[in-house]
Write a structure and sequence with these properties.
Layout: H1 7-24, H2 26-35, E1 59-63, E2 66-69, E3 74-77, H3 92-102, H4 115-126, E4 130-134, H5 137-152, E5 156-160, E6 173-175, E7 182-184, E8 199-202, H6 207-214, E9 219-224, H7 240-250, E10 254-258, H8 270-273, E11 280-283, E12 294-298, H9 300-312, H10 328-340, H11 344-368, E13 373-377, E14 380-384, H12 393-398, H13 402-413, E15 417-418, E16 424-427, H14 434-452
The structure holds pyridoxal-5'-phosphate.
GO molecular function: pyridoxal phosphate binding; transaminase activity
Cofactor: pyridoxal 5'-phosphate
Keywords: Aminotransferase, Pyridoxal phosphate, Transferase
Length: about 450
């Protein structure tokens, strides 16, 4: 069989799926129309329009992994809010803790009596002894970068090509493949500062490039995900992280792991499971079960340097922190999440079922003789329309098939299965059941049949 699929075939199927969506989602279509009067682009957050549906799917409710839309259709949700709801939508212990705390004060700009227990639980789950809080992973990363520059006195940051660490200006830079230079990311709006002057980008899995970028001795920290997850799922090569950590230590560079997505790997995240020994760790999104919350943890040595930097600074604003960070409601949710969601039995279930899903996808791809790959990191999987596991961001760019990705998403959504809209990512939660995996695989098989016709 010819493995490439004609773009006319993809376009024809996509058109049929768009018509099917419109015919079966009159309420979502009506809401999308009405919402234009009050929201720019018709949605509360502009990137909600980036889903490949002809109108935005309006959510009526979400419970476990079942998402119910305005038209009453039920979906097996494998997107799970792009990780925010990794433990399922509204897990009972979390909903209970939030309701209870809601009657006892939401925010006081003082620590609640839960703080010591939450600190202990953070250390138990993620391994680092000292913590600070933020409301989003973007904020946490921003604050970590500020601390890193403050305590090292160095101006430069290092990130990997294809990285995403949230709405963090310093990291919204790209690698120019022709020259190897760092460039401001052209899609970023309203940016007048040249962050490329203070951030270096190197390809993922490229130790020589990393070493060269550190050689000048002016880099404060390396901020990295343990695997790239925002540009397709790109796993680290064997031995990559121990070598990176050794380079960071040799050059006095803080080794910061952003585990916001890779917390899907294992209980406590990738860095803990693989003994990467980071200086600083960031976790957002699912850390408090999807309530706005992020945390960053660090070693005693880093904590001492942070305290010294703060003591040496003049009185006034530090530029670190926001008023609602560490509020009582968030702490109650975090407490419940660390106790009832970040557990070994939950991860056992997630990882076993994700492995089953991986096998099912791989088997069907092989049977259909498609040159596609499935890459898995614990409970997180990606269907990649390329013949091998990607090694770096350029590899992903070189094999991008956005029309096929969009078709896959819409085809599955129209048949009750939700994947992430950006790349074909699937996340397995403690609430996912074998029947959900079977449903996904059955729809995937239908898609393969349609594509083969
Ligand atoms: C690795 C990583 N870090 C940070 C963020 C930012 O998270 P938030 O948008 O919740 O601030 C994201 C968002 O996708 C992410 O993938």
């Amino acid at each position: 069989m010819n493995p490439s699929i004609a773009s006319q075939r993809i376009a024809a199927l996509q058109q049929a799926e768009r018509e099917r969506f419109i015919a079966t989602h009159p309420r979502s279509v009506a809401q999308a129309e009405a919402a234009r009067a009050h929201y720019l682009f018709g949605v509360p957050l502009h990137w909600m329009r980036d889903w490949p549906t002809p109108a935005t799917l309006a959510v009526h409710s979400a419970q476990g992994i079942t998402l119910t839309c305005a038209d009453g259709h039920r979906y097996a949700d494998f997107c799970l809010g792009d990780t925010g709801a990794m433990f399922g939508h509204s897990p009972a212990p979390l909903a209970h803790a939030i309701a209870e705390q809601a009657a006892q004060g939401l925010t006081c700009m003082l620590p609640s009596t839960r703080s010591p227990a939450v600190g202990e639980a953070l250390q138990r789950v993620f391994g680092l002894p000292l913590w600070q809080m933020a409301l989003s992973a973007s904020d946490a990363n921003r604050f970590v970068l500020r601390w890193a520059r403050a305590i090292t006195g160095r101006p430069q940051l290092l990130v990997f090509d294809g990285c995403y660490h949230g709405a963090v200006d310093d990291t919204l830079v790209d690698l120019d493949p022709a020259t190897g230079r760092t460039l401001p990311r052209p899609s970023v709006l309203g940016q007048v500062h040249n962050h490329a002057a203070f951030t270096r980008v190197v390809p993922f899995n490229d130790l020589a490039a990393l070493e060269a970028a550190l050689a000048a001795g002016d880099v404060a920290c390396l901020l990295a995900e343990p695997a790239l997850t925002n540009f397709g799922l790109v796993p680290p090569a064997d031995g990559f992280w121990p070598a990176v950590r050794a380079l960071c230590r040799r050059h006095g560079v803080l080794f910061v792991m952003d585990e916001t997505h890779t917390v899907s790997t294992a209980l406590g995240g990738y860095a803990r499971a693989h003994a990467l020994d980071p200086d600083v760790l960031v976790v957002g999104k699912a850390v408090a079960g999807g309530l706005p919350c992020a945390v960053y943890g660090f070693t005693h040595a880093v904590g001492a340097r942070m305290a010294a930097a703060k003591a040496a600074a003049p009185e006034g604003h530090s530029g670190i922190g926001t008023t609602l960070a560490g509020n009582a409601l968030t702490l109650a949710a975090l407490d419940a999440a660390l106790t009832h969601l970040h557990t070994a039995p939950n991860y056992r279930h997630m990882l076993a079922l994700a492995a089953e899903l991986e096998q099912g996808l791989v088997h069907r791809i092989a049977r259909a003789q498609r040159p596609w790959t499935v890459t898995r990191l614990g409970a997180r999987l990606e269907l990649q329309f390329m013949p091998h596991t990607p090694r770096h961001a350029q590899d992903v760019r070189d094999h991008a098939q956005s029309e096929l990705e969009a078709l896959t998403h819409l085809f599955m959504l129209n048949r009750g299965v939700l994947l992430t809209p950006f790349h074909s990512m699937m996340l397995v939660s403690p609430e996912t059941r074998e029947g959900d995996v079977a449903a996904l695989l059955a729809v995937f098989e239908q898609l393969l049949d349609e594509l083969a016709r």
